[in-house]
Hints:
Elements: E1 20-23, E2 32-39, E3 44-47, E4 52-57, E5 67-72, E6 75-76, E7 80-83, E8 90-91, E9 93-97, E10 103-107, E11 113-114
Antiparallel strand pairs: 1-2, 1-7, 2-3, 3-6, 4-5, 7-8, 9-10, 10-11
Amino acid sequence: MRLKHKPLPKIKFHVRRGDLVMIIAGDEKGKTGVIKEMIVERHRAIVEGLNLSKKAVKPSNEVPEGGFIEKEMSIHISNLMLVDPKSGKPTRIGRRRNASNKLERYAKKSGETITVK
Length: 117
């Protein structure tokens, strides 16, 4: 099987599924949403309710009448920033060890620990 795209190098992402993020570039700039799905191989994420595109679909069991549907398209993770849980503004992420010596993510602006919902 031939791949459409060259595989990208594996990196540690600053966002995860369930995080509240703000889009910092593109048509949807400034809008916030929750990450619904991560596409790790392509360094992209699908944000709930944002980056919608109209797709033409043929009639099928799922869509008996066919026509156009709105679908959430993926966004590159470089265009996403995590929203600070304290201030509600976009922030960078840091990693530190907590009291039980486990890694935790924290907001660089406020120092608040980030928990995934």
